[in-house]
Amino acid sequence: MANEKVFMGRKVFFLNAPTGFEKAVIDSLRSMEYEVYSIKDYRVLKEMIRLNPDSIVFIIPTTALNFRGWRNFIKSFENETIFAPLDVGIIMRKMNPERESLFLDGVQYDAGLIYVDNGIDDTMRKIVASLDRLNAKGIRKYVRADCKSEKSAEIYWLKDEKMLKFNMIDISSVGVAALFPARLQNDIFVNQVISSAYINMEIVPDGTGLVERNQLPIELKISAIKVVGENLLVVFMYGNETAISVIKKIREYVTYILNRNLYASIMNLPLDNIDYNVLGI
C-alpha cells in the first residue's frame, strides 16, 4: 500500500508557515499541482501523518517549542515503525553552530535542511528540488478533490430550453467528472463543447462559519464517457475560454475540500500533549 500511495503522489505538509511564506511558497506549490497542506499546530500533526505515513513534512521552528524541543519532536517520529516512510525537512535561517546543533544532533532530514537567508526564490527552488527528488507528485499530474458527498457541487447548462444539472464526482484545475443518467446518452458525446456551462460549489472560509456560494461560468469539453451501472461517467476538460480567475477559484475549492477532509479524519483523536522541551530522546 505504501508503494501505491507514493506511486500516486504524496501529501506535503508545512508546519508553522507564516502568512508571507504561505502566499509566496505554498500557493505557488499548489499552482504547480503539489498536494500541499499548511498546519499551524504541531499537536495535530502526528495523527495526520499516522493516517498518511507516506507524507513529506517541512517544519518551520517557532516559539511553540524551544530548539531542543523541536529536535525531540522530529526525532520522536523514529519511535514508531508506521512513520518509516515519512520524509522530514526543516526550513529556517542560519544560526551559530552551537544552536544549529540542537536541531541536527542525531536527526536525519531526508527532505533537506533548507535555509531561507538567500531569499524566497532560492528557498522555493530548493523546496521544489526536494519534492521532485522525493517523488511528491508520483504519476499524478493534477490534484483532485472528491466531491461525491458535496450536494452543492454541480455542473449545469441549458439545452433546448431545458436545464441539465448534475452532481460532480471529482474536480481538479483542468477538469471535472460527473454522473449522468443513461437516458441522456443521446444528449452528450465525446468532443462536445458546452460553451455556456456553470459550476456550483460552496466554501466555508476558516473561522467565519459563513457559506461562500460560487456560481462560475465555464466552457466544458467532453473528453470521455463510460457506462457505470445505470449511469454514464462523463469526464469534462475546461475549454480555452474559461477565465483564469475561474481556474483560481476552482483550485481554491480543491484545497478547501482536501483540508476539510484532512481535519475531519482526526476530529475525535487526541492532541499530542507530550512536553518535547523536557523529553529525553
Would you write up a description of this structure?
The chain is α/β, with parallel strands linked by helices and 281 residues long. The protein has 2 domains: 2-133, Rossmann fold (3-Layer(aba) Sandwich); 145-265, predicted glycosyltransferase like domains (Thrombin, subunit H), CATH 2.40.10.220. 29% of the residues lie in helices and 30% in strands. The chain is built from 7 helices and 12 strands. The protein has helices spanning 2-7, 19-31, 42-51, 67-75, 97-104, 120-133, 244-265; strands at residues 12-15, 36-39, 56-59, 87-92, 112-115, 145-146, 154-159, 162-171, 175-181, 193-203, 212-228, 231-238. The strands form 2 sheets. It has a 6-stranded antiparallel barrel. Strand 7 (154-159) and strand 8 form a beta hairpin. Helix 2 (19-31) crosses helix 6 (120-133) and helix 4 runs parallel beside helix 5 (97-104). The longest helix has 22 residues, at 244-265. The chain is elongated, with a radius of gyration of 22 Å. 26% of the residues are buried. The model has no long low-confidence stretch (mean pLDDT 91).
